[in-house]
Amino acid sequence: MYTIAIHGGSGTINRSEITPQQEKTYRQGLEDALDAGYNVLARGGSALDAVEQAVRSLEENELFNAGKGSVFAASGKHEMDASIMCGQSLKAGAVAGVTNIRNPISLARAVMEQSENVFLLGAGAEEFGREHNLAVEPDDYFFTEHRFQQLKEAQESNKTQLDHSAKKKNTGKGTVGAVALDKDGNLASATSTGGLTNKKYGRVGDTPVIGAGTYANNETCAVSCTGYGEFFIRSVVAYDISCLMEYKGVSLNEACDLVVQDKLKNRGGEGGLIAVDKEGNVALPFNSEGMYRAWRNESGEGEVAIFG
Q1: How many domains does the chain have?
Q2: Active site annotation includes 175
Q3: Count of other CB atoms within 10 angstroms of residue 242
Q4: Mean predicted confidence (pLDDT) in 221-244
Q5: Can you give the residue range of the structural domain that contains 154?
Q6: pTM reported for the whole predicted model
């Protein structure tokens, strides 16, 4: 049964601090991305195409911290990360610290399919993107006023912060991602982010790290994570869920609960993830106050949700 799930980030998302109009706008952004991916699957397209299109939609929506809506790094630039993985071939592509690339997820896919590499960084990744004719945008394409205010607030307190922390809790929501199962039984996952506001020293989180923020394997599941990346890297979260299913034979829901609500939480990690298994079952666990999420399957079942 073909299925897709997407997320637009997790964190401190309080119903009392979001206006009805804001909620409506966020939900519409999730619906648009869900439609973009689902329509690929409904036409018989691949899971890989579906997750790329869903994430591209989120990257082009300034509400979400990826692509156009990315937060500012300490350098005053937008340093974006993304990765994608094919569950059938176990091939993957990832990029980190790229600037001016309109759709980092498409660059990650190009790395996977058109190079012998898995992971490209910074200027080299951008050069690869130009050689493969990926769309590039000027700095002002990525400029949004509320992101700039977030940077100023973070610089005033000399802190690096999650996009949903501090004063502007509901202005854009962290990492974005998608997971899908297509009609041929192939799984895929994709994740993209602008990272942390005011991040320094070329910091990279879990998003482009295969096995930490993104993983897909036709034998088990596809996973895309969102939260404080350092904890997800240390716990190898995405791969851990697949491992529990492969080696212990537990269900998707059991694996997700153990990792997100027990292991990750006990280590101080806040966040969540989306996952789909080879049967089309969906899990969307999070240990934060909310997670921007949506899913839909071939039978028309699904939801769009924000709060816990």
Answers
A1: 1
A2: yes
A3: 24
A4: 97
A5: 3-307
A6: 0.95
